[in-house]
Design a protein that fits this description.
Number of domains: 3
Helix content: 25-40%
Largest sheet: 5 strands, mixed, barrel
Radius of gyration: 28 Å
Length: about 300
């Protein structure tokens, strides 16, 4: 039993060392990304990884309602937990959780940007936690005296929301379309047009098979490529004539994608504290591992 306990202790210390070290590196790196990325204006932002400050705005989509309280909002996240008691063990077990996927609108006085919250670390300003007797609450939490006399609370509910008019700090991958901002990669665009036309090969033959032999020779393929170039240029002109549309989403690289009602300074401070906690856990795990290994040698 003593050897088994030492093995379990060693496994726990290894996990604490690895987990604490990973958490330290992750939060420290995220804090540095936030500090090293300058704040941009939507109208003049370069394509790529950017940071914005702005105000949440209503989009063209229908306004959402939070699932637990029914409160109108732009984004929500919820969790329902059940209280479990077995002997000396008491804990809250998550039964349901979820978040909305509707796009958000951000305005900063120079323009507006649509944000896809998928994959983002969202930190809203509005968070409500309460308890009740039913698995699904019947509306918002009770207030005043009625809340004090609710007995047998077996379920805990938490709901977080973003509302129009709230400040938002956003950092992620920025891209724009329309407004003449995007350049034309003619070779890529021409290839896309040709692949599209090949999907209807009968139509391609009808247009370019001048000798009617059911196949395209080199001269006919030259005509196909020329026509595809002209088509690609025409599509680019039409797209550039459209009003500029800006989007923010999850970066392809391992960069933080954060949406927060708190500003950069507060976020960086929180990330540094969490990094310090990870470092302490890593050191504690390493010391415990060294002690256990020393005990085994004795």
């Amino acid at each position: 039993m003593e050897i088994q306990a030492q093995v379990i202790g060693l496994a726990c210390s290894v996990a604490a060392t690895a987990g604490g070290g990973w958490w330290f590196l992750r939060r420290f790196s995220q804090a540095r990304h936030l500090l090293d990325t300058p704040t941009s204006k939507i109208r003049s932002a370069a394509q790529g990884y950017v940071e914005f400050y702005g105000i949440l705005a209503q989009t063209a989509e229908a306004q959402l309602s939070a699932p637990l309280t029914g409160t109108p909002c732009l984004w929500w996240r919820y969790r329902i937990e059940e209280y479990r008691s077995s002997g000396k063990s008491r804990n809250w077990r998550t039964l349901e959780s979820g978040s909305s996927e509707a796009w958000l609108g951000l305005a900063d006085g120079t323009g507006s940007c649509l944000i896809d919250p998928s994959g983002a670390e969202v930190r809203p300003a509005t968070r409500v936690v309460w308890q009740g007797q039913l698995r699904h609450p019947l509306g918002p939490p009770k207030r005043g005296w009625s809340a004090l006399f609710t007995s047998g609370k077996r379920y805990r509910y938490s709901e977080e929301r973003l509302h129009a008019g709230q400040p938002l700090y956003a950092i992620g991958a920025f891209r724009s379309s329309g407004g003449g901002r995007q350049g034309l990669d003619l070779a890529t665009a021409k290839g896309a047009v040709i692949r599209e036309w090949k999907g209807d090969f009968a139509g391609l033959l009808q247009r370019f098979d001048s000798d009617g032999n059911g196949q395209l020779d080199e001269r006919e393929w030259q005509r196909v490529r020329l026509a595809a170039s002209l088509e690609a240029e025409d599509r680019h002109r039409q797209q550039s004539a459209q009003p500029a549309q800006h989007h923010l989403g999850k970066p392809d690289e391992a960069q933080p994608f954060v949406l927060s009602c708190a500003g950069e300074d507060e976020l960086v401070r929180q990330f540094y504290w969490q990094a310090a906690g990870g470092a302490l856990l890593c050191v504690a795990g390493a010391l415990a591992m060294a002690w256990l290994l020393g005990v085994e040698r004795v």
